[in-house]
Amino acid sequence: MHLGTIILCFQVLYNWLTCLEYKQFIVGKSILFQAAKFLLKFGYLDILKEQDSAGANDPASPAFKNAVKRLQRFGNIPVTGRIDSKTLELISKSRCGVKDPSLPSSRRRRSVGEFNLQGTKWEKLDLTYKIINYTNDGITRDEQQQIFRSALNLWQSASRLRFTEVNSDEADILVSFVTKTHGDGYPFDGEGGTLAHAFYPHNNEGLSGDAHFDDDERFTTRTRDGINLDWVAVHEFGHSLGLEHSSVLESIMYPWYRGYVPDIKLNDDDVKGIQELYGELSTITTETPTTTEPPTTTEPPTTTELLTTTETQTTTDPPTTTESPSSTEPPITTGQPSTTELPTTDLTTVLPATTTIAPNTTDTPSTKVNPSGHPACSPGTRYDAVFVDDFTYFFKGDQFWTVNNVLQKSEPKQVRDYWPDVPTPVDAAYCNKAGHVMFFKSKTFWEYDGRRLLKSGSVQDRYGFRRFDKVNAVVTFQGDHMTYFLKGTKYWRYNEATGKAASRDPRRIRGAWRAVKNLDAATTWINKKVYVFKGVYYYKLKSIKNGNISVDRRYPQRIARRWMRCPKQGKDREMSIGSLESEP
After folding, report:
1. Catalytic residues, which ones?
2. Cα gap 37→49, rounded to integer Å
3. pTM for this structure?
4. Of 6-10, 117-121, 182-186, which gets the smallest average pLDDT?
5. Three-state secondary structure readout of 347-377
6. Residues sharing a CB contact under 8 Å with residue 7, sequence separation 6 or more, in sequence order
7. What percentage of the chain exceeds 90 in pLDDT?
8. Rounded CA gap, 333 and 576, in Å?
């Protein structure tokens, strides 16, 4: 071959490769921008947090990787921490415009599918709604009325709620079709992006509960063509009633648009969520009354959206989402559960200050009945283990139940159905630095990633403890980042970062830990505070000072009343008066 021809061929090849590399660079930048915008828009990155803001455009940053992992877990796709093909497919799907629940980024995939409650609800069961205007997409006015009536009736059929259509602007829920900027601070983005949005119940006034549908979309019914108004309406009204998004694929509250569903039904996850807020259906009839047709005026409020590549919304929170509780303590049992703090009592009603945990007494006569029917509310209930993952898990015998960050508890579940290798009752459990759940029974451990067993074996071999017998509780302290294994009057320490046990342990609790001997369980909650459980009471550890641990003087509190929100019984009444604070 002629030398000039060879040189020309190499030049063409070089130019082609250079062009390809440039295109890949451009595509990579485009994908990164799309992913970062999605993570910011739907609550996986918070622009107000310095670490999130700094890492938003850096796929190698811890903040970006953690955000991607949270998205992957919630979307039920493989958790890699990378923007791979499955993740791109997920963020390119049509979906609701409401932010997803704000769950800790370090948590692993949930072991139990659970509904999510936003934290507010309607303070009455009889609600009214008004359809402000109608879409002109080919669905008749009568059909649209029936679609909205049927959507609300689905939620009514599973709960004690009742809905009535009225022709008054004072209706609880206003339903409207709007476009672009429409006066609520959350503009729609035209066809193909946000489908609709709705406001949570909040304070039951103003925009609370209102549902807005993007009239730039082509809504349809009884066909796979266009956007199915029936499904979008049921989903949005779930937000109007106080439900957040669920990671359960079959749930109505799953955030990604499902498309045309011929016979829409609530999933078990949806039913449990609405009943947690408004109770189970009793003998009340479920037919939704109809009233006069609403007028065709135009103004609106709220959104549900398809995955969009348009600009992220304004910095104010989107309608149907609420910020994850801004406080650092668990919630309280007053009115709407809108805080993230567990309750305490007024200082005039708490037990006397103490530096030691109360004796192990049951103090509740066995003749008392359980008014709620939940085992958490049975007299004298105490716990074998407590740990925090996406939820707070409470173990008792062969059962466990979860409590979310606004103190809504789940129904009991069997331990063997989720962790079949673990014998019950467990001695202790905690979530380690890797996000794996560790169970302990006698001298053996079991390590799980979600519901998948990774390994099991000897506690002494795994942790390197000397003279280890068994453990009552395991908890990681934020102060020294050590994990403490407590048994009776002794404790062992383990450094998760170095993988080494403290050389001189075990130590005597009576020295440094005078306040917390002979406890049942302990955990570090989402507010970074340590709570210990003993009998029917729990305590908050206030500080570590000069090697000693202090118990907050407002404790002990009853587990059943503060964590489980059980009905008041006997002496419990005096501890619920005048509660002005919001922490457990």
Report:
1. 236
2. 15
3. 0.45
4. 6-10
5. CCCCCCCCCCCCCCCCCCCCCCCCCCCCHHH
6. none
7. 32
8. 9
